[in-house]
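Appendix C reproduces, verbatim, an entry submitted by the partner laboratory led by Prof. M.T., so that reviewers can inspect both the input and the predicted structure.
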Amino acid sequence: MKGTEFSAAIHPSVDGNITVNLTDVSLDEVLSVIRDMYGYEIEKTGKVIQVYPAGLRTVTIPVDYLQFKRSGRSLTSITTGTITNTDTGSSSSSNNSSSSSSSSSSSSRSSSSSNTAKGGTEIETLSESDFWPQLQTAVAQLIGSGSGQSVVVTPQASVITVRAYPDEIREVRHFLGISQQRMHRQVILEAKILEVTLSDGYQQGINWSNMSFGNGDVVIDRLGDAVTGLPGLDPIGSLLGGQTNVTISDGSFEAVLSFMATQGDLNVLSSPRVTAANNQKAVIKVGTDEYYVTDLSSVVGSGDNSEPSPEVELTPFFSGISLDVTPQIDDQGNVLLHVHPAVIEVDEQVKEIGYGNTSISLPLARSSIRESDSVIRAQDGDVVVIGGLMKSNTIDQVSKVPFLGDVPALGHLFRNTTQYTEKTELVILLKPTVVGVDTWQKELERSRDLLQEWFPDQ
């Protein structure tokens, strides 16, 4: 340090020889090389350079994250009728057997039945985020525990205290830096949930292959693009008229809506928008809950009141629109989306159930569910189209002679009732916009380019 503006303070325990051959480098680069290769702890404060021996050090590193545990569950279940036989209490004097059957049902609600056999298909996705215990475990694995290393996590203060050697602390800082950078990524998800009443020429569903525009702005690419290892759904959808996943590269909702309007009558059910953090589930749910009877049992009183009385169990059924999305954002701005939309319509049906010598009318739930569970890959600003969720309705169409068709008793002679089938297709549009560190800088540059285009320099 002689002849320079810096001063050196060396700890008495510092010893050893250093051999380096560096050319045309700065002082900070020299200190960084010495720290990395020989393990000394070097701190530069102003114009004073402090050198400590290569031993255990204790540092406190801030970690900006919430203190909470979050879990999510997405379930798509289609259960068919099954019969279960159970034999219990078998002996030489008695043999008790029971037989139970379950009816066919389709539900998006979670249910637990450990002793009942199920048939059909079930897709269940679980996500859990418990950051601080996982962070403590990961850092402890990095530094080890052989020579007095330790990790103390304080979620309330959003800090982690590490006692380790300098090279291990450097690895921990690098790990935390990359982890926070990826955790702080966000994506803005704009969604449109649409229902198209198909025209006569499109009763098999919307024909996406006809989507073309003369201006060339809309290009369908990555058709059926799936993650490596996951089967694409579009070849099957093309053959069976089933679900279709399409990615449109210009990010235009208007172009897709205009095209869909040519296939039938368009009705926008919902236009939600949500911001989701990286690998965190975002849920949008709009609708109502109504209680219906789901269980009926008999309760026998005691004493004089020994007549059996019915006991009913009420369960809420959701009717409306729900959408949960989990994004994963990579370094290039690509977004891997787990999308689970559901449109549920529940109405009441009254059924007569015989109970002893009496008959009971119970309000039961009848649900119509359209949902899908997909894993889709898209780029920043793309529009992802999820279609193929179709439903048929039989509608009575009445044609009559004015005035005469409304005459009591004789009016049926002057009117005609015909039935026709109306098909509707549910379509979900998703547009992910990645929010990064330089997002606002890009927006400023885009605005500047637009101004330059609108008002060019003379």
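Residues 82-117, 213-244 have pLDDT under 50 and may be disordered. Additional entries are available on request from the coordinating office.
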